[in-house]
Amino acid sequence: MSNLHRILVASYTNDVYTLEFDSSEATVTLKSSLEVGTHPSWLAPHPKDPSLVFTGLEQSDGKIVALKYDENGVGKVVAHASSGGEDPCHLLVKDDELLIANYTSGDFSALPISHEAPYFHSGTPKTIHLTGSGPNTERQKTAHAHGVFWSEGTKELLVPNLGADRVSRLTRGSDGWKVAGDIKFHPGGGPRHVAIYDGMLYTILELTSHVYKHQLLPLPKEPVFLTAVSTLSHPPSGGATAVGMLAAEIVIPETSSAYPTPYVYASNRNDPSPEGDTIVIFEASTSATLALITEVRTGLKHLRGMVFGGPDDRWLIAGGANGGGVRVYERIDGGKGLKLVAQNEKVKAPTGFLWL
User: Which PANTHER family does this entry report, sorted A to Z (predicted)?
Assistant: First the structure.
């Protein structure tokens, strides 16, 4: 089993970085970088060819860039296309389509693609404009699509709309995708990302730092609300928004013989503590509960993205967009805890990761 792991890093610079994590030496090294354009903040691989990776440029004239990587993790730009909106912040490859969440314009777009050149088969994606607003006058004046996630159990797409406090449920027919329902959240919560495990939907709310748990039932049935908990072990007086704290990412690695119990990992941003932002760990189960297991201080500032990788998803890489670089953790105690094993503070403004 190789001790070397290559990891791509999305960023709020103009570059996508390639890191090499050596688990035997406990080092993470910046090997190369590829200039692609403004704020390539998310990465999505093509399932038929993992060396083909798509990124979105968060700019008013939203762009999608196709990247091709060799066996050494060195990449090149091979194609460009429109994202169909402003500031594409999240991507998902599903079959022969690249599915896009355009944050500022509140658009969901579907772009035909291939794992072979020319990669993009249409200059203009098909777009659905989401609607709605919320009570947070700074962040919720209009709809803001913040993610695209596939639910295999219910055969639908889930698109968090941070601006309207809902997650839209999209199904595909002969004429393309359409909104078939919505999951609503408390006003001002701002759903950002979701994770699904064993029929349960976990939604992280950016603006109030909560995780909601639903039993996700097939359309046209409504999901069953089970519980909501704070991502902060000690919520500040007046709420998280009072001090500018924001929740960001939520991930649930698959269980294995090494990690038989499922856990939910959620990241927080802008913690005023000198020890940096936190990753909180909850125990996932089929019950209505969502119990906080522990909180891990990271030393990172503005912890946005984190992704599991390696055999049995043993390792977690996380980054601080406003400081601290990247840090790699090992899951310990069966997944109940995280132990820092490697770090590199020279990586600038990391926002997302992809294990090659």
Answer: 6-PHOSPHOGLUCONOLACTONASE-RELATED, DUF2415 DOMAIN-CONTAINING PROTEIN
Coil, strand, or helix at residue 163?
helix
Q: What are residue 16's DSSP bridge partners?
A: 34
Q: What is the maximum alpha-carbon separation in the chain?
A: 54
Its pTM stands at 0.96
Taking a C-beta distance cutoff of 8 angstroms, is the pair 56, 89 a contact?
Answer: yes
Q: Any idea which residue has 């919520």 for tokens?
A: 235
Nearest Cα residue to 262 out of 207, 213, 221, 229: 213
> Do 76 and 34 contact (CB within 8 A), yes or no?
yes
* Lookup: tokens for 350: 């990391």
Find out whether 246 and 268 touch, Cβ atoms under 8 Å.
Answer: yes
Q: Which amino acid is at 133?
A: S
Residue type, 348: K
From the first residue on, what is the mean pLDDT of each consecutive set of 10 residues in the chain (356 residues)? 90 98 96 97 96 97 97 95 97 96 98 94 88 96 98 98 98 94 97 97 97 97 96 76 86 96 96 95 87 95 97 97 97 97 97 97
Cβ atoms 63, 55 nearer than 8 A: no
Q: Are strands 63-69 and 49-57 parallel, antiparallel or unpaired?
A: antiparallel
Give the closest residue to 27 by CA, choosing from 325, 257, 295. Answer: 325
